[in-house]
């Protein structure tokens, strides 16, 4: 259960992304600055964190030995993940971005067989059959049904253009983030821990963020003080805390596709955290009956996912403890 609790904590910190990005957009900040500043501010924080643990040298060694794959999958895992999220936040509220982001639960399951190193030898159909955990997929669909209900409760207040431009970039991000994370876990082979892997991906994606900063400067001028402050908060809460926690949780279960799917499903709670924060910070209206039903399905699906991804031995032990305790009063 420990990886799941770590995943839930990371979802709490990730929720800050959606709210702070929405605040920056409402204040007139450029989405390109919001995207690039996060990773540029993350870099010194991560360098300090990893240096304190004496782990900087292995990071540079890994990059030096496989520069091409690290550059490619860091671009996919970070740039194609976060730039679309920031762009989408221009056209939709934080809850919509957070809700659409939950597509990563199912997309992460579907792309897993394609990322396996031996799928070409076995055939893609055979790889899917052996790698897709049906129970995890079914419970993921429960969570997605909840997400759909949450979206439906607010759909009347959103234009078709906002819906389209708020969803399509997120779909790209939903595939890019798990793909980059999973592939670089394979490439690093367990030689880097979570903070080191996040640092390596940040270093390898830095040239792309600098180019995006140049674009932001040309099109929007320098960032405002408010955008710098909010970007720093995103870098600390989401970029460092949430990403390191999530990478740590996925690394703990990287060899078990079903438990890995369970950890990735914890990110569905971002919808709950983002909605609560948006109501408190931005005075957004509370959801109606449909919205509450969706939130219940999201949380309920998460609980089912947690038990479905427990190892069989742990399930048996928990059953024995429950039976030995007898009925509660």
TrEMBL record:
The keyword Phosphoprotein belongs to this UniProt entry's keyword annotation: no
Domain of life: Bacteria
Stated name of the protein: Multidrug resistance efflux transporter family protein
Swiss-Prot/TrEMBL keywords: Membrane, Transmembrane, Transmembrane helix
TM regions (residue ranges): 42-60, 72-92, 98-119, 131-152, 158-177, 198-217, 229-247, 268-286, 292-311
Pfam family, one: EmrE
